[in-house]
Amino acid sequence: MPIRRGSVTFARFRAEIPAKRSSDTRRWLARGLAKGAFEPLDIERGEDDRAAGFVSAEDPGVTDFTSGVLEGEWALFAFRVDTLRIPSSAVRAELDRWIAAHEKERGRPPTKGEKATQKDLIRHAHRQRAVPSSKVHDVSLHLASGELLVWAASRKLVDEIAAGVEGALEIKLTPSSVSALAVRSEISDAALAPTAALTGISGKEALHVEA
Predict the structure, then answer these.
(1) More confident residue, 4 or 194
(2) Beta strands in the chain (DSSP E)
(3) How many CB atoms lie within 10 A of CB 40?
(4) Are residues 39 and 79 in the same domain?
(5) Of 11, 123, 141, 190, which sits with the fewest C-beta atoms within 10 Å of its C-beta?
(6) Cα of 88 vs its chain's centroid, Å
(7) Is 0.85 topped by the overall pTM?
(8) How high is the mean pLDDT of the chain?
(9) Integer Cα distance of 44 and 113 in angstroms
(10) In degrees, to the nearest 5, what angle opens at C-alpha 116 toward C-alphas 112 and 121?
(11) Are strands 172-175 and 11-16 parallel, antiparallel or unpaired?
(12) How many structural domains compose the chain?
C-alpha cells in the first residue's frame, strides 16, 4: 500500500470497472480525471464561493493527469475543495455604518433597494480581499481488485467525491462498509448487535433488555 498524506479516516468502495474501457489505462485515467478537474474560483468576476475537482496527488495545483497518477497497480489522485468565506458579521457591521451615515447625510433611511445595492458592493469588496481556504483529500483506486479508498471524514464530501469518480471514469461504485455489506448479504440488524459477552451483561439481563 502506498503512503498517503492527510486524514487517516477513509471510506471504502468497490468499483465495477467496465471491460470496454480503453486498454491504455494511463490514457483512460488522464481523460476521465480531466473531465472533473479542479477549476479555481474566479474571485474578480465570479460569484461562486466554492470550487471542487480532481488534482494531482503530488501537487494540488496541477490538473494534468498524463503522468504521476499510476503507481504500480494503484491510481493515485486527489480531490481539492476551495471555499471562500465572507464573514456576515463584518458585512452587517459595515452596512449598519453606511445606513447611519446615509440617514445623517440625507435625512432619511435608505430604501430597501439602496440597502441591497450597498450590501452587494460591500460583499464584493470583502470578496476581493478574501483568501480561499483549500483542503485536499487523497483518492486511491486499486486497478486489479477494484478497491477505491476516499480519504475524507465528511459523509457529504465522500458522497460528492464518489459521484465525481463515477462520472469522470464512468465506473460504478458500491460502498464496502460493514453496514453496506450486511444489507447486500441480507444480514439482520439483530445479528450485528453487540453480544452479551461483549457488553458485559448476563444472559438473563440480555433477555430482559431485549424484552
Answers:
(1) 194
(2) 11-16, 50-56, 70-71, 74-83, 133-142, 147-150, 172-175
(3) 14
(4) yes
(5) 190
(6) 24
(7) no
(8) 84
(9) 24
(10) 150
(11) antiparallel
(12) 3
**Do 71 and 149 sit in the same domain of this protein?**
yes
- Pairwise pLDDT comparison (49 vs 184), residue with the higher score: 49
From the list 42, 199, 54, the residue with the least C-alpha distance to 128 is 42
Cell of 155: 459523509
- Residue 82, all three cell numbers: 476551495
Q: How far apart are CA 79 and CA 81, in angstroms?
A: 7
Alpha-carbon distance 77 to 136, whole Å?
10
Instruction: Give yes or no: residues 31 and 70 share one domain.
Output: yes
Q: How many CB atoms neighbour CB 73 within 10 A?
A: 11
Q: Note down the domain range covering 210.
A: 178-211
Looking at per-residue pLDDT, the higher value among 191 and 39 belongs to 39
Taking only the tens place, the pLDDT of each residue in 158-211 is 999 999 999 999 999 999 865 445 444 555 656 656 666 656 655 555 555 455
